Amino acid sequence: MKILITGVAGFIGFHLAKKMIANGHDVIGLDNINDYYDIDLKYARLKELGITRDEASFFKNISQSKDLPNFKFIRLSLEDRNNLPTLFEKEKFQIVCNLAAQAGVRYSLENPQTYIDSNIVGFANILECCRNYNINHLVYASSSSVYGLTNKIPFKETDVVNTPISLYAATKKSNELMAHTYSHLYGMRTTGLRFFTVYGPWGRPDMAMFLFTDAIINSQPINIYNHGKMERDFTYIDDIVEGLERVIEKIEFKHGPYKVYNIGNNSSIKLMDFIETLEKNLGKKSKKNLLPIQPGDVEKTWADVDNLINDFDYRPSTPVEKGIKSFVKWYKEYYNII
């Protein structure tokens, strides 16, 4: 198939592109390489895909990977409603996987307009392109944050999610509503995946795994919110990618054109246990700075993945011990730490 992956210089998009390329699909990766976090990491991911920094620096140019004949890259923003349709018209994609978004719960408290532009306007542009250019299937990233202030554990897709507590969460819920509307009105197949705390090699520097590792190695204190009374359904990147792979490559669906799935490890790990495992892998204890819970945070997440199991015969299963070990190994190699 010919697949467009947006957010390809991002954490999940990079890993998915590698998998889809290895599976023999023709992949075009799109990213605007914004500076929300270290752009050197984004360029390093693209380098792994055979795209040089110079090639990735120019907007609207399509670059052919030097190492991977079935991968091309274009630097473009989802908000660009002039050039995005041109790309769709030229390339004639069959599948679109939209992973591009302004990420981060806490950043949305300070820069709300950025989230409206990227996550609402940008997603609307993707939907319009999919409608106008007869895309077979739109797969898109949602988030566990849509569950907001729910007391029902574990989180199930049939739960009412009308109480988001961050603008980021509200934009992700909006994406689901917009996708449902397009599926209903135009018969478009859309599948949303609610990701639960994704971590692993090449991860995002703004997330706990990366922040904690960096601080511990550099003998700096780590900020632990809600005084450590937090639990998360930590999901290893390879499990996320396999879930995406199964959704993208599945030909027949039992349900109608619209569906949303949780994709998590189907368990909840105490944050303090997660930190202890990280300390063991680093061979070093952390200095802990215990703080109150932050606005936009929830105390616990836990994904019910029964629908994923029933429809795709798949359950994420990587133990957190294995995932943390893999991340620490990558981190030390990437930053040349002996």
End-to-end Cα distance: 42 Å
The CATH superfamily name is NAD(P)-binding Rossmann-like Domain
Order of neighbouring strands in the sheet with most strands: 3-4-2-1-5-6-7-12
Averaging pLDDT over every residue, what do you get? 95
What helical percentage do the residues reach?
40-55%
Major beta sheet, specifics?
8 strands, mixed
Number of domains: 1
Radius of gyration: 19 Å
CATH class assignment: Alpha Beta
Low-confidence stretches: none
* Percent of residues in beta strands: 15-25%
What's the tally of helices?
Answer: 12
Protein name: NAD-dependent epimerase
SSE layout and pairings?
Blueprint: E1 2-6, H1 11-22, E2 26-31, H2 39-48, H3 53-56, E3 62-64, E4 71-75, H4 83-91, E5 95-98, H5 107-110, H6 112-132, E6 137-143, H7 167-186, E7 190-195, E8 198-199, H8 208-217, E9 221-224, E10 231-232, E11 235-236, H9 237-249, E12 258-263, E13 269-270, H10 271-282, E14 287-290, H11 306-312, H12 320-334
Parallel strand pairs: 1-2, 1-5, 2-4, 5-6, 6-7, 7-12, 8-11, 9-14
Antiparallel strand pairs: 3-4, 10-13
Entry keywords:
8-stranded mixed sheet; 338 residues; Rossmann fold; two-stranded parallel ribbon; alpha/beta
Would you kindly provide a written description of the structure presented here, covering whatever features stand out?
The protein is an alpha/beta fold and 338 residues long. It has a single domain (2-199, 235-267, 301-317), classed as 3-Layer(aba) Sandwich (Rossmann fold). It has twelve helices and 14 strands. It has helices at 11-22, 39-48, 53-56, 83-91, 107-110, 112-132, 167-186, 208-217, 237-249, 271-282, 306-312, 320-334, and strands at 2-6, 26-31, 62-64, 71-75, 95-98, 137-143, 190-195, 198-199, 221-224, 231-232, 235-236, 258-263, 269-270, 287-290. It has an eight-stranded mixed beta sheet, with helices on both faces. It has a two-stranded parallel sheet with strand order 8-11. Helix 6 (112-132) runs parallel beside helix 7, helix 8 crosses helix 10 (271-282) and helix 10 packs across helix 12. The mean pLDDT is 95.
